[in-house]
Amino acid sequence: MRIWCAGRIAVLLAAAGAFEAAGETIMQIQGTTHRSPFAGDRVSGVHGIVTARTGSGFYVQDATGDGDPATSDGLFVFTRAAPSVVPGDHVELAGTVFEYRPGCSNVATQDDATCSAKSAAFHNLSVTELVSPSILVHSSDHPQPPAAWIGGPGALPPTQISGALGGSVEDPAYPFDRAQHALDFFETLEGMRVAVAAPLVVGPTDSFGVVPVLADRGEGQGALTPRGGVALTAASANGGRMLLDDALAATPQADVGDTLADVEGVVDYGFGNYRVHATRAVATIDGSPPKQTAGPVTPGWLSIASFNIENLAATSSREKIDGIAAQIATQLGGPALVALAEMQDDSGAQGDGVTTAAGSFGALVAAIEAAGGPAYRFAEIDPEDGADGGVPGANIRVGFLYDPVRVAFGAGVPRLGDATTAIGFDSRGGLDLDAGRIDPGNAAWSGSRKPLAAQFRFGGQTLVAIALHLRSKGGDGPLFGRFQPAVEPSRAARTAQAHVVGRFVEEILAADPRAAVVVLGDLNDFDFSPALARLEAAGLRNLTKQLPESERYTFVFEGNAQALDHVLVSEVLAASARYEIVHVNSEYRAAERASDHDPVLAQLAMPAPEPDAGGLGLVSGWALATLGATRIRRSSSRRARSEGGCARTHRCCGHGAREVHAARSVRRTPPLVERR
């Protein structure tokens, strides 16, 4: 018989008083709600079998359990240093029951919420633990308690995450029902051994070794995508998702659509999600789908794409730049117009005061041409230093690539805005600039990318593109957090931004009801969100809704496939518009993709001009595309030099913008700490 106190050998007589012949059971300590009825109390005589250990503690499980599915049979014992017990030891425990909130607790003071309410960790659920333990090892080499099956012969988690009644699920009055709510289902397995049957990989392995899966190959668990993922919809955030991680054993390198052999592990919680720490290596069966290529463009139609290029800069690796370029040239087929989001300044995230991005755009333009794509020119507006959010010091912005063979920009010398000048309307109702930001001084854009409207001509008709990259979801509470429904302060911010853009679109449509309006970009929100509803209320149709719900996704986050990138058009374009999401990135590991977003592509049949344009004072049959913030730049090519404007005249383009030739060479250059 061995005696341990928090992992150190102790004298038998000194420790003997900590134990009793019979005490509380693990099931009694866990209770039937999210918090232990013994929280803060000293308990003793707690028996169990060690099932796994970490660098700061170990998991213990009752040998037989109590047969009640509402109570967990497992518990984590926090020892600070690596424990000396091993799996298979029968231990008797004494210690204090503590509700540990990952990233937000102080074990020394037993305060479970020491972080700011603005911290992501503040939203985490707590985990019932035993701290300051005394440990008595009675015997060793016991068989492991049987694992509870998730799927297979066992129950599947509910697809509904919680009752979403408002407030905290840790409130004793909050309804607790493991058969209806995924939060409650996983709480009843906290600390226990589980076996996940027939896992389907619904998110690629991330840089932390985390693999999102659904049990039973995802059957009966939400809107499965045709490519092996699961789509987040207005009806379901897919409560059956589990995150496998490598805290105890290696996890496989997998992509969406791959399948795994049955996984054994223990259930824990951290970083806003329930996790299964795999306790043995996992075999992978390759099932990920091939990357897609966009369909051919109908002759005479405008092809227009939106692409979040994930913090590209002139200082990015050659592989990164060439990867994005190849996808634009090949997978997208070299669209006539491309809206880009997350282009960084020329020095990347150096924070050196540089705001220009001619080198970054030029590097991409040169790489696209080298990959067999069009000799694009580019349009963008440099932001004020540090004013537009994103990676600190990188000054991300949106911008356009346009093929001058198919799309013309400006008439002679373009009339351009700058970082603080708002684009407006002239006396005839048309735009008073060829490119400019929409109300950049509005408080809605504080710390966020400002939208840019730019006028182009396609097939003799005027096209106005407005680029958007709305505020991110950073700061929102997790779907599996204690507050239900999840707290989403960013939603109101995006809705306010959409309102500013919506009013601008409404002014255009009021001046010319036949204005063809296209709104596209990384809107950082779903097709059923208030922000998208506000833009639709302005007279736009979201082409994302052409697709079945199971196919609406451009991004995969924690296993949820979701549409963040959209194309919206006005009625004059909606009837014939064609739309596709080209899946080349979001379903694949970082090493196999060029960006974390999939690009989207629309084909538009421009309306025929009318003899009397009226309204806007422009050629009838506009198209307005809403994408992100921008500044006009030029790339050098034979086709670019043959067309009028700055590239030909080598004169200043106005408002501080100037011609910049595309560069032919390129310069190279865990979120929150939680213990376990």
* Ends apart, CA distance between termini: 28 Å
Mean pLDDT: 88
SS strand fraction: 25-35%
Q: Report the C-alpha radius of gyration, rounded.
A: 29 Å
Classify the secondary structure makeup into a structural class: alpha+beta
What's the level 1 CATH class of the largest domain? Alpha Beta
User: How many structural domains are formed by the residues?
Assistant: 3
Count of strand segments:
34
Number of helices: 10
Q: Looking at CATH, which topology of the largest domain would you report? A: Deoxyribonuclease I, Chain A
Regarding quaternary structure, how should these chains be classified?
A: single chain
Choose one word for the global shape. elongated
Structure description:
- The chain has 676 residues and is an alpha+beta fold.
- It has three domains: 2-139, Beta Barrel (OB fold (Dihydrolipoamide Acetyltransferase, E2P)); 147-289, OB fold (Dihydrolipoamide Acetyltransferase, E2P); 302-649, 4-Layer Sandwich (Deoxyribonuclease I, Chain A), CATH 3.60.10.10.
- 13% of the residues lie in helices and 25% in strands.
- Strands 23, 24, 25, 26, 27, 28, 31 and 34 form an eight-stranded mixed β-sheet that branches. A seven-stranded mixed β-sheet has the order 8-9-16-17-14-11-10, with no helix packed on it. A six-stranded mixed β-sheet has the order 21-22-20-19-33-32, covered by helices on one side.
- The radius of gyration is 29 Å and the shape is elongated.
- It starts with a strand and ends in a 27-residue tail after the last helix.
- Residues 5-20 and 613-676 have low confidence and may be disordered.
